[in-house]
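User: Can you help me understand a structure? I only have the sequence.
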Amino acid sequence: MSESIRFHFRGAMREVDAAAPLRTVLQYLREDLHCTGTKEGCAEGDCGACTVMVGRLHDGALRLEPVNACIRLLPTLDGKALFTVEDLQQADGTLHPVQQAMVDCHGSQCGFCTPGFVMSLWNLYLQREGQPAPPSRRQVDDALSGNLCRCTGYRPIIAAATRMGELPPVAFDRATVIAALEPLHSDTLRTHALADGYTFFAPRTLSQAIQLRTTHPAATLLAGSTDVGLWFTKQLRVLGDIVYLGEVAGLDAIDSSDTHLQIGATASLEAAYQAICQYYPDELTELWQRFASLPVRNAGTLGGNVANGSPIGDSMPWLIALGADVVLQGSTGTRTLALEDFYLGYQKKDMRPDELVAAVRIPLRQMGQQWRTYKLAKRFDQDISAVCAAFSIRLEGDLITDIRIAYGGMAATPKRASHAEGSLLGQPWNDASLTRAMAALTSDYTPLGDMRASAAYRMKAAQNLLRRFWFETRTDAPLAPAQVNAFAHGDTP
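Assistant: Let's start by predicting it. Here is the structure, written out as tokens:
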């Protein structure tokens, strides 16, 4: 039985005909509702002009998250609330403090990107309700990491982030939204008919998801849509039947033991990195900040990142370096694979037709372990890596007793450097061993050249990142990251 898509919008419940063609939230807003405040810029989740806020119930509370409407598929709004820039103005016509701050600080130039910036600032405003101190520059930069301005007007927008907290506050009525969403909550499988006879399935339990995976093995598995959304908007692919995992109860759970942290497959990237950085704050916080943008991290999932297996995905190198496992669930039970064994080739994985990724298991820090991960890209924020590297080492004295080296962007899959590792294991951690390992990387990888980097650059960068790791972990006189950076620019360490 097909059902309508129901969500809270502009103070009322909105129902969308279940027989409508598959559309993005942005297409629906602009073309069907003629709500044109939300703009289309890139249609791939990069520019932030389409930023909206999605609200959902989580343990009885309202969780609000900015996401990119251009790659968010409309059926995923079922049971949720949608807010756009038009929702901020008060009933009497008064601008919201976020909007007024943008006016006061001259934060809008051509204006095309402005609605997206306003929605990202509104998210920051809501997060800081009741806090008298203004947000730090780092907090502002993180909040705006998903918004690009072609007029380069960032300075006044950043100023508006401080100014908005100086204006008379406007409270957000969460209780009304929660009351509106509670009747929409469902524990049963939801189905929405799509065009051409296809169906959008939204299972509520893992057993339902496995059953759908078994009976519809060709269906597209959908989690955060940060990659699948581009199949739809850029590649114009027909997605066919879709099994949406975002409503499966418990699949977003994050659990820890004395030895491992287990991240459920539909836990958002933001939630996953926040949890992992509690155990590895020094090594992983910068990559967390640089991984895509906040709206993408809110929508995307760590399980989806792993299941997608992109050779330029930033999560896999450090997961492999730490010895993470992927937990697969199918009709015959559960099996666990080392993550590096999961990838068989470009877009090829060791996953049976009835299986899905259920979780990622990450070992916690071992005695004596040192590790780092490094991302090289043309921009600090929201850019795809040319090379992403991760290294883990354990030493007894000066001898290497365990070494794991993994790179992204260097091969058809995220991949360990077996030759380089073999040249180091059991050897002293010194310059001579390092030099041999750097040379051995040419046997591990044959990188390609593209718009992000040439093949020669990628190889040289991979070798130099291994040297950087040695600088920071060598036993005689390890260098701090700032000293390594100084050395790289020709200064004496």
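Now, to help you interpret it: The two ends are 69 Å apart (CA to CA). The mean pLDDT is 94. Let me know which part you'd like to focus on.
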